[in-house]
Each structure stands twice: as C-alpha cells, then as structure tokens.
Amino acid sequence: MLLIESLYEGPKAATETLELDFGYRTKSRLRAQLGSGEEVGLFLPRGTILRGGQKLHARDGRIVEVVAAPESLLEVRCADAFELARAAYHLGNRHVAVQLGEGWLRIQTDHVLEGMLTGLGAEVLPVTAPFEPEAGAYAHGHQHPGDGSGARIHMMGGQ
Prior knowledge:
Layout: E1 2-8, E2 16-20, H1 22-25, E3 29-33, E4 39-43, E5 55-58, E6 63-68, E7 70-77, H2 81-93, E8 99-101, E9 104-108, H3 111-119, E10 123-130
Parallel strand pairs: 1-4, 2-6
Antiparallel strand pairs: 1-5, 3-4, 5-6, 7-9, 7-10, 8-9
C-alpha cells in the first residue's frame, strides 16, 4: 500500500488523484484508493483538513492531487442579503460547516437544519456538488501550539 504522510506545495504536477468527500478530507488517518485504483494509506498531521486542488507527497515520491468529490448538500437562498446573513448566523451559532457562494450558502444534508432554515423563510434546495466550507476564523495564523486553538470545522452528525 502506498503511504502518504505529507502535504506538497512545490511546482511538480500531480500524477495521481485522490477523490474524497468533505467528511473524509477532515480525517488525518485514512485508507482510500487513488483514481488509478491503487490503495493508499493517508497519515497526515492531526487536524489537517484537505481542500480540493491541494497536493500530497507520497512516500515513493509521487505527487497526488486531492479532488473534492461531489456529495449531497443543501443550498440555501434567501429573498435578500439580510435574510441570507440571518440564515448564516443561525448556522454559525450551531457550529455548522458552511460554504459561501454568490447569493447562497451550502451545508451538508441535515433535515433538522433544513427545517430550521425553511422556518426562517429560506429556500432550501438539494444539490450535488463538491463541498468546500469556510475554514474558520483561526484557519491561518492565530494559533497557539498545543493549546487546542487550532483551526477546526465542527461537523454535524458525529462525522
């Protein structure tokens, strides 16, 4: 099994792909398959959240590109910017991972949150798309090593 233990930020082009949904991109220990079908073991630093387009360095020297897999999501739209901000506030208050777009929010499918959002007057539509939520306020910079203040995205449903 091919081992992947580090991120790669150099100029080399990827020769393999690793397609994962967001739930799997938040796991630092994982067994998966490359696009070619080859089995890989992912052993990244704890707390690593992979993003679509990011590159990984395999132990044998190959560069692997992460692909954000399409998944079942809910797209939230509102009548105006105030109502959309209100919906975003209520989702943030529940520590839900949210992807922001021009005039919409996307969250992972959750019938309880869907009910809350429709109760707030939002239009909620099922979509299938890659999920790339905001990284959070402390994603870059404001961390104190070892104190637990590092970047986190809280997942609903025990993921």
